[in-house]
Design goal:
Cell wall formation. Adds enolpyruvyl to UDP-N-acetylglucosamine. The chain has 436 residues and is an alpha+beta fold. It has 13 helices and 23 strands. Strands 21-22-1-23 form a 4-stranded mixed beta sheet, with helices on one face. The protein has a 4-stranded mixed beta sheet with strand order 2-14-16-15. The longest helix has 14 residues. The relative contact order is 0.15. The structure holds uridine-diphosphate-N-acetylglucosamine and phosphoenolpyruvate.
């Protein structure tokens, strides 16, 4: 497939699109299916690359995976589960961050796990120290093996009491996926509470898990000896919804996003309204539009849920280049998530990056030489440019910038965007974008 796209901007995106299941839940629910001794059915599954990567990893372990793109129904039959060939696992190195979550389920079901080196967006160091600490506490023996890790559990996995120093999404999922079948009781404090995690907990409960969530970011899990398949409908991808909403704002457009769910987007909708966007929530989805007039600047800080999500930050920054005044964005989740602004500056935006924390939220990056705050001065007309996509959300943000810019831009490396945006080329065409 051609990996670059020519975008002629300067016209509003208008029309209707549908967003299906969440990349950051579907991939985890697919891993959870490994815990079940019977077939699992996942619905509302989008046709994105991360689903293909996890399907392939499951197949390497003997899972019979069947996906009907049209209906979005994915079934996973785990009756012939078996250890995978290490050489074949290695071919998945760098493909996604999901493989590290296979550890607990594979240790429970097969007694060993071989994990390739992780991929995912390069938006910071992204260590896995929390994951390994949790797995070792449960009783896993972790050794480095070639291009990845080898894990075993000679004495089985036993419940633990753990507190995260930061409410990491992946580490919370690691603990849940391991604790559900570990012997005895597990408790976790300072857990992540993103909607995708709540959906994972619901899925695990359907499978037979006993999980009690408290109101203070803590959870108690009573391990069970056997789990079964599930039937579950994925929540909608709130990051994709927010990305299209920002595209409507930046291009002066009007986009009806079918499938969008208000209850998972509270903080985003507040910000969208404060910046000057309009939205209508309907039973079918949410319609986002630029109502005309100037957009307003804003000061925001990204945070764990229920704060403003880091994955919304990059698309929003493009819209903020069109707001009248100074906007401030303090990124507190990743230390290096403003690299994508170089291309915006090349297109005429005024974005100044700072090492200091430009906000009062507790942040791990303040005194550590990371440019993790941005001041955006607008409105600045954007002009076409040749751009290389840096990462998933940064890439979609570049597309939005090209759609808002006068002239024809070339955006290279758009394959990355397929990791998390289903049929984005068709959706752009449906919204009247001029793309080749
Ligand atoms: C596939 C998936 O669901 N990806 C999402 C997930 O990523 P992911 O699960 O990787 O993100 P985490 O919540 O774990 O990371 C948050 C912070 O914790 C740090 N950390 C994490 C693990 C660890 O072992 N040590 C450590 O220091 C990270 O470097 C980062 O600074 O949540 C992020 C935060 O909402 C989202 O941006 C990603 O889209
Ligand atoms: C950072 C992201 O994903 P991943 O964790 O898969 O790299 C994202 O979806 O924006």
């Amino acid at each position: 497939m051609n990996d670059s796209i020519r975008v002629t901007g300067g016209r509003p995106l208008e029309g209707e699109i549908t967003v299906r299941g969440a990349k950051n839940f579907v991939s985890k629910a697919m891993v959870a299916a490994l815990l079940g001794s019977t077939t699992s059915t996942l619905r509302n599954v989008p046709d994105i690359r991360d689903v293909k990567v996890v399907s392939s990893l499951l197949r390497l372990h003997g899972v019979d995976v069947d996906y009907d793109v049209q209906s979005g129904v994915l079934t996973m039959d785990t009756s012939d589960l078996q250890s995978a060939d290490a050489m074949q696992i290695a071919t998945h190195a760098g493909s996604s961050r999901i493989p590290i979550l296979l550890c607990g389920p594979l240790l429970h079901r097969l007694g060993e796990a071989v994990i390739p080196d992780l991929g995912g967006c390069r938006i910071g160091d992204r260590p896995i120290d929390f994951h390994l600490e949790i797995l070792r506490k449960f009783g896993a023996v972790v050794t480095e093996a070639g291009d990845g890790l080898h894990l075993s559990a000679p004495n089985g996995l036993k419940g633990i009491h753990h507190e995260l120093s930061y409410p990491s999404v992946g580490a919370t999922e690691q603990l849940l996926l391991t604790a559900v079948m570990a012997e005895g009781i597990t408790t976790l404090h300072n857990m992540a509470v993103e909607p995708e995690i709540k959906d994972l907990i619901d899925t695990l409960q359907k499978m037979g898990a006993i999980i009690s969530v408290d109101t203070d970011r803590s959870v108690t899990i009573e391990g069970v000896p056997e789990m079964f398949g599930y039937d579950h409908v994925s929540l909608t991808d709130r990051i994709e919804v927010g990305s299209w909403a920002c595209a409507a704002l930046a291009t002066g457009g009007d986009i009806m996003v079918r499938g969008a769910q208000q209850r998972h987007m509270g903080m985003f909708l507040n910000v969208f309204r404060k910046v000057g966007g309009s939205f209508d929530v309907t039973p079918e989805g949410i319609r986002f539009r630029h109502p005309g007039g100037d957009l307003k600047p804003i000061a925001i800080q990204t945070d764990v849920h229920p704060g403003f999500m880091t994955d919304w930050q990059q698309p929003l920054v493009v819209a903020l280049t069109q707001a009248a005044g100074l906007s401030i964005v303090h990124e507190t989740v990743y230390e290096n998530r403003f690299g994508f602004t170089d291309a915006l500056v090349q297109m005429g935006a005024q974005v100044q990056l700072y090492r200091e924390c430009l906000g009062d939220k507790k942040c791990r990056f303040g005194q550590r030489n990371f440019t993790h705050s941005a001041v955006i001065s607008g409105p600045t007309p954007l002009k076409a440019a040749e751009i290389e996509v840096p990462d998933l959300r940064g890439g979609f943000s570049h597309l939005i910038a090209a759609l808002a810019a006068e002239g024809t831009s070339t955006v290279r490396g758009i394959g990355i965007i397929d990791r998390g945006y289903e049929s984005f080329r068709d959706k752009l065409a449906a919204l009247g974008a001029s793309v080749e």
